[in-house]
């Protein structure tokens, strides 16, 4: 099974295979979303209470996927884009006010999605392997969609980008919101499956099924490299 037949939802069962992707280098950009220190660093399990240890263990598959797959494969893809001079853009969750007053409501609500990541703090920075270099563009957002709360739309338009290759987290939240926004703006969106992760594997794959073929095309990093000749 390849990208043309994988990750099919109920809506697209039996649908014709999509046409081959035509991702011209000068019309394509890689967008890396929210792979920040806060999502890869965790406390020592032995320092936690039994209740905290239980939650810690539930998240272990996510952290393993980030360490073993998402970060290294995104780094490989990023370096391939750099080698060939293809545009790279980064979007990260980062508020401008120290108290987070400028955040959107979704980031202020209590619970897991409560996010207070001031722009200059360590937690809000991209992981070391995926730091922007040179004139690579970084936008800060206080929304799930990287388009809604930034000037990314204008940036991509001004650079004549038509195809946006997406990597990042979380598949079912900021990645999905960004993909949908890009699709609504008539960008051709490609999501790199093994460069993304959700809190749970089921959420990751279910969201890929939901967005695939209507808002984007889902491919593996190996397939993308072959398609683009990287």
> Which structural class should the secondary elements be placed in?
alpha/beta
Strand content: 15-25%
Integer-rounded radius of gyration: 17 Å
For the record, the CATH class is Alpha Beta
SSE sequence, one letter per element = EHEHEHEHEHEH
Side-by-side strand order of the widest sheet = 3-2-1-4-5-6
The appropriate CATH architecture is: 3-Layer(aba) Sandwich
Total strand segments: 6
Average pLDDT, rounded to a whole number, is: 96
For this structure, what is the CATH homologous superfamily?
Isochorismatase-like
CATH topology heading: Rossmann fold
Q: Which sheet architecture does the biggest sheet show? A: 6 strands, parallel
Oligomer: single chain
Helix count equals: 6
- Report helical residue fraction: 25-40%
Offer a concise description of the structure.
The protein is an alpha/beta fold.
Keywords for this entry:
Rossmann fold; six-stranded parallel β-sheet; about 230 residues; alpha/beta
Write up what this structure looks like.
It is a single chain. The protein has about 230 residues and is of the alpha/beta class. It has a single domain (about 25-230), classed as Isochorismatase-like (Rossmann fold), CATH 3.40.50. Helices cover about 35% and strands about 15% of the residues. The protein has helices at about 50-85, 105-110, 150-160, 170-185, 200-210, 220-230; strands at about 30-35, 85-95, 135-140, 165-170, 190-195, 215-220. It has a 6-stranded parallel sheet with strand order 3-2-1-4-5-6. Helix 4 packs parallel to helix 5 (about 200-210). The longest helix has about 35 residues, at about 50-85. It is globular and about 50 Å long.
